[in-house]
Amino acid sequence: MERRAGITALGTYAPANIVTNDDLAARMDTSDEWIRTRTGIRRRHVAADDEFTSDMAFRAVEDLVRRYGEEALAGTDLVIVATNTPDALFPATAALVQERFGLSAGAFDLLAACPGWLYALSAAKAYVESGQARKVLAIGSEALTKLVDWNDRSTAVLFGDGAGATIVEQVEAPYGLAPMVLGADGSGAPHLHAGAVGRCLPNGEPLTDKVHMNGREVFKFAVRVMDTATLEAIEKAGLTPDDIELFVPHQANFRIIDAARQRLGLSEDRVVVTVDEYGNNSTASIPLALAHALDEGRIRDGDRLLLVAFGGGLSWAAGVLTWGGGRYPARAGARDASDDAAGRAGTAGAGTGSEGSS
Ligand code: ACO
User: Fold this and answer.
1) Which of 21, 59, 153, 245 is paired with 324 by a 20 to 30 Å CA distance?
2) CA distance linking residue 160 with residue 85, whole number of Å
């Protein structure tokens, strides 16, 4: 049988602490109206002071097990955590996940800004399809608000925290991942950077600890690359935009998402919007958007999903995933809403998500 990797299980987590636009307006010179009209964001989930990327990754894996059973995690032989905010530079956050769940697995972190989870998906695909790994736990987990300067209104209003965990393993065609698109343009590094360990960029621009962003340049880049990367991914899958059942883009700004949707000629009911609920939680954003769409019954087996993300680097990634082919039936209502803030958000986000796309 042709080896083809696909996602067979998914779990998510979003912190219970919710910060609304009005909360931000009370502490800085901004307004709900400005944030909503410029970005589509209404609120974001923010990690507690003592809640870090590993904690959120653990919770996402626990949600995966709740939804799909222990069997889904059993036999995992590689853990990849895509994050820009590891608990430490070493040990890898992935190693903490390995230990927590008693996995007999290799483990490494992957740092590729907001497209990090798609990069992890593409790495997992390569490991599985080459036969080097059988089952990969590919996680996106982000405590980005810890890198935000809360006195800088141009960035503070944009970001949130969260995590998504996925099992990637062999599925039978036509299910699974088509060849993916990965891209980077390091000349755009001055436009978006954070978390300095070095002193400056190669062009001499000083690096900073907190997020530094040239919003207008990143906006233009994002609109351009969402267009070119999605078309390239669709072509690599041997499809046309008409063949895409659901567009699940990185959730950074509703205007960027909507511009991409329109360029692809997709109707509003074929895009998932959760940026209103979470803001931009980087590597966690696409897994959370996928979970919302699944919970709302918007994804059926055999649906072709178009995934795309962009971010610092500058970098980007895209791919077409044909959903399904997994061996672990999802348990209805497996998510414990009283225990997991993402459960509450699942309901709230469903309503606001469709508002956002109308
Ligand atoms: N509240 C009120 N006013 C604000 C705020 C705020 N939070 N932030 C900026 N402004 C002001 C500016 O000072 C400016 O005022 P001026 O006209 O008097 O100079 C005005 O609003 C317009 O500012 P712009 O930056 O031109 O606003 P724009 O329409 O471009 O929207 C935004 C800004 C939302 C940041 C947009 O550029 C954007 O979304 N860019 C892309 C960001 C992104 O997607 N980043 C991804 C990061 S991925 C990763 O890897 C981390």
Assistant:
1) 59
2) 12
237 is a domain residue = yes
> What pLDDT, in 10s, does the model give residues 148-166?
999 999 999 999 999 999 9
- What is the number of domains present in the chain? 2
Residues taking part in catalysis: 114, 250, 280
Check whether residue 200 and residue 157 sit in a common domain. Answer: no
Strands 135-142 and 162-171, by their bridges, are: antiparallel
**pLDDT at site 2:** 74
* Nearest residue by C-alpha to atom 8 in ligand 1: 154
How remote is the CA of residue 40 from the centroid of ligand 1, in Å? 12
Assign residue 190 the CATH number of its domain: 3.40.47.10
| pLDDT, mean of residues 12-26 | 98
* Same structural domain, 311 and 196: yes
CA dist 313 and 130 (Å) reads 28
pLDDT in tens, 319-338: 999 999 998 988 765 444 33
For residue 278, the CA-to-ligand 1 centroid distance in Å is 17
pTM above 0.90, yes or no: yes
Q: Is the CB of 39 under 6 A from ligand 1?
A: yes
Helices 116-130 and 285-295: crossing angle in degrees, nearest 10, is 80
Q: Which domain does 223 fall in, by range? A: 176-331
Tell the residue nearest (CA) to atom 37 of ligand 1: 215
